[in-house]
Amino acid sequence: MRKRLVAGNWKMHGSRAETAKLLNELVQLEGPKIKAEVAVCPPFAYLSDAVRLLKESTLQVGAQNVCAEPVGAFTGEISAAMLKDVGCRYVIVGHSERRTLFHEDDQLVARKFMAVQAHKMVPILCVGESLEERERGVTEQVIARQLDAVLTVAGVAAFADAVVAYEPVWAIGTGKNATPEQAQDVHAFIRGRISGRDDKIAAGLRILYGGSVKAANAAELFAKPDVDGGLVGGASLKSEEFGRICAAA
Ligand code: PGA
Question: Does ligand 1 lie within 6 Å of residue 156's CB atom?
Answer without folding.
Answer: no
